[in-house]
Design a protein that fits this description.
With about 260 residues, the chain is mainly α. The chain contains twelve helices and no strands.
Length: about 260
């Protein structure tokens, strides 16, 4: 009875999470302008997206911000994870605990604090401020993902390389980095997804003329709720899902190889 109840609760929970997204995707193919009824199947709203140059400009901005934030945050996060994971002192454990603070902090507070920081330091609000903000909130996530992989690694392989005559740099390049690679890629995918989909922090740190795709979608919804918004949102949901599935596959294959080893 307990197992059945748990299954029912799990199904209800997943339905509450997925049903709105599935309805969004379904109604992006609805020929009716009203979201209350279904008329017929159409690709019209997807075709209309091709005639919106502002969407392509916003997409380019989102890609620039996302790729830059991903590269920088993953690099810094990997270095920080190595420093924390290989340091046995209590200070390293305290640093790991502090990482949770930016993650649990509400995005509104994070956005306001970054806005105050940029204003106080004279950083002009625009593309640069958005990139800095995205790097800031992506770093804790990349550290935790890489750190989890680092702690699951077999340190004896590195010790064996050093014993066989390899120097520390060679062991790091030939042993440590390949073993860390699945975690690094998973961290990069997660960072890109977080950056590309972010709205709240971008809203506070983007200046005039700097609009990412989530900001443009918000502007479209404020003016009028048209089905093309559903089509654009559906594309974002599908793209984000594919990235998350890719990250999960990396993590899953890594765990499998770890158990096999």
């Amino acid at each position: 009875m307990t197992r059945k109840l748990t299954t029912v609760i799990a199904v209800i929970g997943y339905a509450a999470l997925l049903l709105p997204l599935l309805l969004l995707i379904a109604f992006s193919f609805n020929s009716s302008r009203s979201g209350a009824r279904w008329d017929s199947f159409t690709f019209e709203w997807y075709v209309r997206l091709l005639h919106r140059p502002d969407l392509f400009i916003a997409l380019r901005t989102s890609l620039i911000v996302g790729v830059t934030a991903t590269v920088v945050s993953t690099t810094l996060g990997t270095i920080a994870a190595l420093a924390i994971g290989r340091d046995p002192r209590r200070l390293a454990r305290a640093a790991e605990a502090v990482l949770m603070l930016p993650i649990v902090t509400p995005e509104v507070i994070a956005g306001i604090s970054l806005l105050i920081l940029f204003t106080a330091t004279g950083i002009h609000l625009g593309l640069t401020s958005v990139i800095i903000a995205h790097i800031t909130f992506c770093i804790p996530f990349t550290i935790l993902v890489v750190l989890a992989r680092l702690r699951g690694m077999d340190r004896s392989l590195e010790d064996a390389a050093l014993t066989l005559g390899a120097d520390e740099f060679t062991a790091f390049r030939r042993i440590t980095i390949p073993l860390l690679l699945p975690g690094i890629i998973a961290a990069a995918l997660l960072a890109f997804t977080l950056s590309f989909d972010d709205f709240v922090i971008t809203f506070f740190t983007a200046g005039p003329g700097t609009s990412t795709l989530p900001l443009v979608i918000y502007g479209m919804v404020r003016r009028t709720v048209e089905p093309s918004v559903n089509a654009l949102s559906a594309l974002l949901v599908i793209g984000t899902t594919l990235l998350l599935v890719a990250a999960q596959r990396w993590l899953g294959s890594d765990a499998t190889s770890g158990r096999a080893g």
